[in-house]
Amino acid sequence: MNLRQKRGQETKRRIIETAIALFHERGFNNVTVDEIVAVTNTSKGAFYNHFTSKHEVFAEQFKQIDQFYVEHLVPRLDADQSIMERLILFLELQMTYIQDELGWDVTRTIYEQELSTERSSYFLDPDRPLYDILIGLCQEGIEKGEFKAGYSAHDIVTVLIHGMRGVLYNWSLNRGKISLVNEQRMVFRALLDGLRA
């Protein structure tokens, strides 16, 4: 990577981090591209060189969130624990991160943007690192006999993903006035108890 490319990547990173911080602080709809450009001390040309709109910043944010799961959450899972214990810990860490670092308004806006018919949803991307993490854990759990017979790893991940979406959507509807972490504990305990061998 040459110096120009490095500078471009640094500008893109700065725009993403600044935009997400502003969205978190003031709400997505209250932040303009002009403000993002001013705070990052860049130009509109630089912004539009990397993104077609402020909505597209979310696509990059998704990739960073999933990378955070890979780099920071997965290493905290103890291989000596059961898969159920590891799933419970992963889900707790995931929802704590979303609650504390992203906030309800950014989460709500992510859902809003993912419902757009103008582009495909990152939620449905089968190559998401989140899916790889969950498939790996669930496959190991099946091999160890921790799940009820008859469920594939894909089936279990589908149930977990639907649970995640439901918990996050409900938290967004409540404008963050309920604890995401507490809600996810109740929902995933019920889901995992239903799947447990």
Automatic annotation (TrEMBL):
GO terms for molecular function: DNA binding. InterPro entries: Homeodomain-like_sf, HTH-type_Tx_Regulator, HTH_TetR, Tet_transcr_reg_TetR-rel_C_sf. Keywords: DNA-binding. Residues 9-69 form the HTH tetR-type domain. Residues 32-51 bind DNA. It comes from the Bacteria. SUPFAM superfamilies: Homeodomain-like (SSF46689), Tetracyclin repressor-like, C-terminal domain (SSF48498). It holds the Pfam family TetR_N. This is Transcriptional regulator, TetR family.
